[in-house]
Every structure is written in structure tokens, then in C-alpha cells.
Amino acid sequence: MKTFNIVPNIPPELEPLKEISFNLWHVWNPDAITLFMRIDRKLWESCNHNPVLMLGRLSQEKLNELVHDEGFMLFLEKVYSDFKRYVDNKNFFQYSLGVNKDFKIAYFSAEFGINDSIPNYSGGLGVLAGDHLKSSSDLNVPLIGVGLMYQQGYFRQYLTPDGWQQETYPENDFHNMPMKLVKNGDGNPLTVSVKVGDRNVYVRVWKLEVGRVSVYMLDTNNQMNSDEDRKITDQLYGGDIEHRIKQEIILGIGGVRVLDALGIQPAVYHLNEGHSAFATFERVRILIEKHGLTFEEARLFVQHTTVFTTHTPVPAGNDVFPPELISKYFSVYISELGLSPEQFLSFGRVNPFDKQEGFCMTVLALKNSAFANGVSRLHGKVSRNMWKGLYPHIDVEEVPIKHITNGVHIPSWISLDLATLYSRYLGPQWAEDPDNEKIWERALDIPDEELWRTHERRRERLVAFVRRRLVKCLKRKGARQSEIMKAKQVLDPEALTIGFARRFAAYKRAYLIFKDPDRLDKILNNPEKPVQIIIAGKAHPKDMEGKEIIKNIVQIAREERFRKKIVFIEDYDINVARYLVQGVDLWLNNPRRPLEASGTSGMKASANAGLNLSVLDGWWDEAYNGENGWAIGSGEEYDDLEYQDEVESRAIYDLLEKEIIPLFYTRGDDKLPHEWIERMKINLKTICGFFNTHRMVEDYMEKFYLKGAEHFFSLGQNGFEGLKNLLAWKKKIDTNWHNVRILESEFLGERESLIRTPLGCRVKVDLAGLTPEDIVVEAYFGKLDANGKLSEFQIEKLENVKQIDSTVYEFSGEITVEKTGRFGLRFRIRPVNLNLEDSLSLTYIKWDD
Ligand SMILES: *Cc1c(COP(=O)(O)O)cnc(C)c1O
Asked: For a designed S-S bond to 410, which of 399, 434, 516, 762 qualifies (C-beta 3.0 to 4.6 A apart)?
């Protein structure tokens, strides 16, 4: 069959419109959105905010009409010049690199949620990745996205009459989406091949422009591949574990090859979750092949330039492949790396010697990266605990998994109404500089009346949206006219509105607020103080427990007493999320602590001046300050889960009855809930400046990207001279380390010493064949807890004072303790090298006992 594409015949005057359509900058630019709405508001909605699709559907008459609409053309000119100014501005973010060079960061993710026009995400992980791209673009961080483009994306949800979730998988029409197939110099599609099992799979690439950031999405659905291989990129998180390993081979290995084929040489690779961790091996392989490095050299280089972000607080959430599957798909690859199968498997095992242990992608990612983090303060702690088995020589607090708390890209999530209000009262910088806490302090100056009216307008919009969705949904199902009439009357645009929407994973406990329907009835149906709940979310197709939860909620919502009060919106996506977070008064989140790594939807509500009612888990554990929302419980964890549900659902009812509802309905003479509005402002002031992706991306830049880039240059230049020196040094350490010992250690303080007095320490070490420059001797001290363990440790470096004989040296120094109580002190020795990332020296540590 001959294939060809038909493209719309856009008049030359509208070329700028086309250009704006193909750059996802329009997603977070209010004027660009207004421009598209102006063309045809209904069509804009029905095209899922996809301007490329919309342009293709406009009649020639309509296109010509636009050209002759002077007002439209002037507005287009303005938006286009804003757009050009944005994409051509190359120097917004000021970063300082030790070596003054350009560098790039490749950001790998299995899902990207940029907008509802590109259904290539399932939930928070993808939306976070999308927001990471947008903030990188705004900040001019030199980032490049790499992902998979799924033919069917994630499923669409609809419910049977009794509330059971059904899935449909509409095909994504790539040629009508805001992206372009990447071509070679000769005009043919760029193709990269990846061996999957015993076949070569050919990958094509779609390029998306997200402001100044490019994203490359890999796609195996083309005629060069067998039917089976065409399906590798069919669905996000679909299929069995074998399907998953194939997808991860394409993402990790294929992704690195695509960058290579494009001539892009990133300095730093960022793995957003473990799915893409095979990329580390592919980089090793290429370094061996192209630069003649040894496996050890190549891996050391890759480690120093890889950042890994883990998102999963439970072991079961991590991809683990049975060893047989690794053998099946990697036998040739393993020999190309010059490894034995057991050596290869050991990189994915906590215990390298346990032949039964599966191959875990998170373990691989941790072992092959020098920079790792969880996504909230609490999740950092949970992750260090989860993976401490990988670092047997150190205390859990020192496990090198840090945290960088997630954020949201605020301009993408707030309503146009609020954006206008913020521009007026916070100043126009709020959109460019949302992580400037000073700007958000001005929220306190917004007049109550204006903030409240704007918010009420959004609540009304939300109610109208829900009704429209319900009607549409009922019509599709062939419902009776009387039912459709009823749907038009659900909810009350003035009632206190609670939102709950997210993936229906069991730990998120969507059922919690429905646990006692009679008590809920009293709360919702108080005629003076009405309350209503809007709920949405998808369960993974294989998650029967999640589907059961949806069904139960839907059945409760069907009861006559709740019919107008509780609405389940089908097919949760970014668009539904946007309406919800922009219109609700209260955003409910009640995960089972500590299973929510971060959560971001509450931040979106918060940026829209909605208040959070949440368990102290993930980000809320960090954000809640006693007056910017409400906490369910105070951070407890339970063994008896039934009991926990009982206690925490009661806590929700209590808070609603005693605090939240009264606050909302306490109105002044002007009918405004001044105290509630005060909380809205405190919420804006204390949350938005920090919980946004500008702050997050800058954190990644400062803590990881810049360091990785420095390693890239210092280890890589002059034919990898620095790397070779580092490895030679590391070999010297490896040969001598088993002979290195702490011979004696002395604490020169009293058994009872005064606070803040320097206390002396002296340590004698045998360095075997090493020199004092190769190591550090450290005093490691902290409070002794009831179990005799050190907590809140501090580290003080001791200085080399004298050489005692050929290999023995004395080190000494002082420690100062800033608190009172019982303390413990230990000494240790570890190798150091300017070029060795600290996290990689922790596996060597020797203690004095
Ligand atoms: C923000 C968002 C999420 C994340 O929700 P959390 O429960 O806060 O993790 C999931 N899905 C969509 C569509 C979102 O927009």
C-alpha cells in the first residue's frame, strides 16, 4: 500500500498560527489559549485542546474568514510575537558551571503528561514529567525529553450502569497531534534499531516542542516491524511483564541510540523512575565501543553523570524481572558488555550472591547513578529505609538517596480568571518567577471580595462542566430523558465543594469519606450548610480492588439522598483535573501513610486558592503548618489497617463538622467568609512559592545537574584522561583497602563535657599502601537514642598531624556539640578523591569497631 498524509491548506497569513499550534508553549499561555478559543470554542473543546487537530478540521471558508478578521489577526500577531520572544530568549536561567561550557541533560520518562491533547500519561508521574519540561523551558535549563509514544496511550474509562469500570483504547492519531516525525537528511524517517530478543526492532521518533525544550518519543508501530513488535509501544503500562521488559528496552536502550543518531551528546542523564534504567548500560556499551573504554571505566563515567529519581515507596511498586527474562532478552547484550550473566544480574540485585533474587530496575538505577532522590522529604526517608540493604556499611540516614520535593508548573494549572487576578495583585512576574516567595506574600493584599468572586466563578464553571459531562455521558449510554433532566440539576454552585480525584490505587483509599454513609448524609444534606463531593479517577485495568472501590462509591452516589450531592466524573484526565482543582473549595487526599511518595494534585488546588484536607503524607507532611489547610491525624502509621480506616475516616468527619464547614459558612454582613478567605491567602503565601516545578528544577540543577556536568567534562576531556586517572586511583584503593585499619582511637573530652566546648579526638590509622591524601578520617557523632543508636549524626573531618611509621599516621581534631543529652561518637575512614562523587565512596567505609 502507498501511504501519504493530507495536510490542511493553511493560508500563508496563518502560518504563525500553525507554528504556535505545534509548540506546546500554548498550553500554559493564557493568550494563546484565548486565541484558539476565539476560532471556535466548541471545536476547541471537542478536539481536546489540540490545535493541530482543530486546524485540520476548519473549513477553507473559516480559514479565509479568519484571515479577513482584523481583530483576530491583530491578536494573532501579538501572541505570535510573545511566542517568538519566548522561544528565542536563550539566557533566562543563570547557572554557573565550574567549566564554562554548554551541556545538555537528557530526561527519560515512561510517561509524559503535557496536556490532554497528548494522552500519553496515566497519572502523577507523567504529569510531573510534563511539568518538569515546562519549567525547564521557562528557566532555559538545557533539557531534552525522551519517552515512548503509545499508539493507544492510557485507556479511557467508562462505567457500566452498576458502576463497574470498562476500558476503551482509542487510537492516538499521531499525524493530527502537535508533534512531528523526525526525518533524516534525505527526508526519510529517522530510524534506529534495537535488538529485542532475537529480532531487530525499528524505532521511529516523534518530536514535540515544549517551549524551548524538545522531547523525542519513540514508536515501534511501523511497517518494518513484525506485528508483534509493532505492538511494543501500544499501551502505557499494558500487557504482562514480558511486554514491560520490551518497552523498557526500547525506552532505555532505544532512547540512548536515538540521541546518538541525532548527534546529541547529553552530559547528564536523568532517569525519572526506574523504567528507563537500561539506558545506563547502553551508555556503557557505547563508551566501550566508540571510545575503547573498559567496562569499569565506562560504568564509573556513567555513574558520575546519571541522576535517578525514585517515586515508589513500596517494594511491590518497583519493576522486578525474573532472571530468565533477563537471560532471554540480554544474552547477546551481556557479552557485548564483556560481562558474565551473573555479573550482569548482580547489578539488579540487592544481594548480588542470591541467585533467586529478581532483577530490579530501581536497584539497577541506584547502582548505576551517583545522584539519587525521592520526591518529598518523607519519601526520601522512606526510600533510604527501603534501600539501606544496598549500603550495609552506613547508617540509614546516610544512605545516599536525597530528596527533592515535587512541584507543579503553576501557569499550566491555574484558571485564566486567577491568572488575571494574580497579574494584578502579585505583579506580572508571578508566572515567570513562581518560586519567588516574596511574590506570594502579596497574596495577602488581594481584596477579599475579588478573590472570593473569582473563586466562586470557577466553582460555578466546575458545576456547569460536571453537568455537561454527565449529560453527555448519559446520552451516549442512551439514558432516558428524565434521567438527563436530573443530571442537569446535580450539585449546587454555591455549596462547599470537596474534590477527590486521582488514580484509584487501593492505598489512596477513595472510599474513606464514604465509610459511614449516614454520618455523611447528615454532613452533606444540612440545608443551611450544604456540602457536595466531586470524585474522579481510573483504576488500573488489572486492579480489581480499585475497580471495586469505584463501584461502591458509584452505588452510594446513586442513592436518592446523595444523588445531587455526590458525583463521579468518568474518565479522569488532565482536563478534568484542571476543572476540579480550579473550582473546588477543599481538596481531599487520604492516602495510607507513607505510601504517597509526594502527590501533586493538592498543590494544583492550592495554587488555585483551594484548601487541602490531607493525611500528613508526601508533600503535605512538609507543607502543612497548622493554618494553611487541615491535617487528618498527625502522621501516625498503623499496623491494623481496618482500625486505621476507622480512625481516619472519623477524623475527616470531625474536621468537616467542627472546623471546615463552620468556617466556610461563617459569613460577614457582606456575605463573604472572611476567615475562610484568610486561609486561602495563607495557603497561597505559604505553599505556592515552594511547591512548584521552577523551584524543583532549580533544585535538580543545583544539587545534581551541575555536578554531573562538571564530572562529564572533568572526567571526559582529553580522551577521558580524568576518568582513567580516577579509575587507576580507585584500583589502588581496591588493592589496599582490606589492609587499611583504624588502630587506635581516643576521645579527649570528659565523660561529662560542657555544651559548645571543643572536644579533642585522636585516631591512629594504618593506611597500608595509601597516602593521607587518599582518605579522610572522620569523627561521626550524634545523639544516642534509647536503643543505643546514633541519630541526627554530624560528621567532623580530622586532620593528619604526623606520620608515625611507614604506613601509620595520626589524625586529630575537635568536635563541638550544640545540644545537651547523651551522645555517641565513632571514627571512620573512607577514600576521597576530588573527582569521586561522595555517594560512591560510602561502600568503602571502615569503622573503628
Ligand atoms: C496531578 C494529576 C495527578 C496526580 O495526582 P496525585 O493523587 O496528587 O498524585 C494524577 N492524574 C492527573 C490527571 C493529574 O493531573
From this structure: 434
